[in-house]
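Supplementary Data S3. Sequence and structure tokens for construct A.
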Amino acid sequence: MTLPTAPALPNPIDLWQLTLQWQPDAATQAQFQRLYEVILAGNQRMNLTRITEPLDFWEKHLWDSLRGLFSPILQPVLAQRASQAITVADLGTGGGFPGLPGAIAFPEWQWLLMDSTRKKIQFVAEAIAELELGNVQTACDRAEQFVRRPGPKPNFHLVTLRAVGAADLCASYALPMLAPRGVAILYRGRWSAEEEASLQDPLSHWGAEILGVDAFKTPMTEGDRHCIYLQKID
């Protein structure tokens, strides 16, 4: 892959620390920069994202992807699994969000990035090779078909879905992929009581509950964001 010359991404250490209680080291920041360049290169061949300016990319792709993984709601769950290798499935990954930033920030986790659009998952596979991410695999598949494949059933500790569809549909995709006590993270913009009510059927069907709803704003433009955490009980 020929990478275009790209401006430097911002690295606002104070904002990282204030909002996530984390900040990237030099190697991680270099990986974020390379991811940005890979996305710009891919955008020349297909429509991956309209968010290409450095500050927008940092806030709406990098920060937004990671905010869901650093949420205070999720931290006790991760602490309980501190001795385990965390497995994550990113469903409907598209151009690789939140999966690629997550895999860079959490290299000790094992990631599966899934999308049903072959050209997008081919791009993600190229990006993984370019970034030399040894903790990521890909699948061109739909979640509802993936869970029916022969062999061991999916047993992920975390499942992420960002900009995939209606909340109840996302829940029905994610919950059968989870291990007991596993957590699905639904990345949303605004959130309503009606959307929350729509989750009751899939939660009841798959034996899950709402672990928490995390409401926050993006740090630069103050856009409304919500992450909804669904935990499988049994």
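Construct B, processed identically:
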Amino acid sequence: MLSCSNLSITYGARRALERFTLTLEPGEIRALIGPNGSGKSTALQGLAGMVKPVEGSVAIDGAPISGMTRRQIAHRLSFLPQQPTAPDEMTVEQLVRQGRFAHVGLFRRYDQNDEDAIAWAMESTGLSALAERSLSALSGGERQRAWISAALAQEAKILLLDEPTSFLDIGYQIEVLDLVHRLSRDRGVTVVMAIHDLNQALSICDRISLMERGRMVFDGIATDLAQSGLIERVFRVDGQFVQISPDGPPHFDVHLQRWAEPVTRPA
């Protein structure tokens, strides 16, 4: 469904993404992990066609997105950035309706298909009862679900999420991850997700792509990543992978070192 080949992106003189190649299957959940500045967000922006590459190409169903309009891309792909913004007084339903713009445009009225898509998006994210509630009255998890609902209203089969669990407490993180998993398994939505929490990535994703300084240094399943030694090197941490359950994914356990002497402020 979604693929890119040798995608390279620069910001000024800095090479932010170097020959990034990726192929996704329908209904797959793919995690992009790596240290800050490793190129995760740039890769997502490149896949969404929001940044023009200096090299390489992105294709949806074999068709290059460079030849598509923004509306044509939006029919197929939804992109949710790290910190989307909207007026606090906007209601959940009003926000979700914005997701139908690719179908409605500036002049056409909302028809029954649009209304059905909006209702489905809110139902899928558990927000039907909160349709008239303003964004300012939502919890962090509810607000994030509202944005995902707006992305779903596009009825795109590809969903790109940039740090969807950032700034959320653990309860809301699990809520959002559970939603992503259900969308993939129940609705066949393909998800590419940049995420910081390694163990969350290991637990929910089918495949993991590890980024370092704009390059992808690993692409595969969790068990192969656990055996590669790359996590310790790329993140510069001391730890080990452990198998909590025989059938479950590996879990990375960081070794925290106690300071030999108390940390004091310099004089």
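The chain is about 35% helix and 25% strand. The longest strand covers residues 14-24.
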